[in-house]
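Tokenised fold entry reproduced for absentees:

. . .
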Amino acid sequence: MRIITLDQSTRENILSTLLKRDPNNYENYGTAVQEIVDKVKEKKDEAVFAYTRQFDGADIDSSTVRVRDEEIKEAMAAVEPELLSVMKKAMRNIREYHEMQIQHSWFDSKPDGTILGQKVTALESVGVYVPGGKAAYPSSVLMNIIPAKAAGVKRIVMVTPPGKDGKVNPVTLTAAHLAGATEVYKVGGAQAVAALAFGTESIPRVNKIVGPGNIFVALAKKAVYGHVSIDSIAGPSEILVLADETANPRFVAADLLSQAEHDELASAILVTTSRELAEQVSQQVELFVKELSRREILEKSLDNFGYILVADNMEEAVDTANAIASEHLEIVTRNPFEVMTKIQNAGAIFLGEYSCEPLGDYFAGPNHVLPTNGTAKFFSPLGVDDFVKKSSIIYYSKEALEPVHKDIMAFARAEHLTAHANSIGVRFE
């Protein structure tokens, strides 16, 4: 990996390079995506089934698009017992973590006859997109469905591309069933997003769409936003390791590569105060790359978006971490908890040399659906809050309104909204 001495110019150049990976910069796909979305909105099932044949090579119709109970039983029987056991352990951790996030309605009653409050209501329906085909991503299934279930969503719909045989990967389907999906449909790509947003004869619409996908899925979510809510427009995966001279270079190198293997646009960055550690990590990365199965992807990812940045001090290193606002941030320093208090921007923060990123991806409990491309400056990880909405509650008795009604009328008249003022005034004629 390239080693660079950190300065203001270096930081700005790297930030500029990283932002080129933003899905919003791939609008050359936008026209094709919009065409798919519009066709599904107009032709509904007909368009969905045609695109499924075109893109997935699967012949799906209204009688087979929804996964049946027999298919779920068949899928669960095909999953290795050991993997099933691991998924159940992970589910327990994920559920317990997200149940801690649950908010309740609250009301504040005052002696003057005023009651103010907030009513928290789960969304009625949510659509979860899960990549499919030959690959299986049970962790994504769990991370998207379990918080929706914890929030109290009654209808949780999963869509995923089928294989050419018209079947859903058994591991994916098993995870969906265990996590609590109420419906599963064999549809993927932009057409699945459009079907969830607008509804078809076979797939009723939902209120919100969440879940990862390729650039077509990301742009489709962007295209339907406003008709439904979405979680985010996710970009490529990224990790930043913040380390000092106490870090284990072999551990750090392994963690950087854990994200670089996702795809060629993934970003892996080490920011360290130790030149010696930088050189050792670079050497370890080279050794690991030769051994790992996704070597070509790793090499391209590191060539394009891999950096080892050497800072003068920890303050400069922390400032850089906050500027990059990485999806995953590992802090491997002498006192990681102290450094953590100075972090303003990060999707998920991993503390200490045994809290590596894959722990969060699969097992620990916090959600692995995280803000990317610097959006951790204003976005949070997926959680229970993404599956509820809040209504304000206002109650004033006549006795509570009377002493303030003239103030409200004056405010309304200042904005030249006389009907607003009249709405208050008629109550005290």
Notes: The chain is about 45% helix and 15% strand. The mean pLDDT is 94.
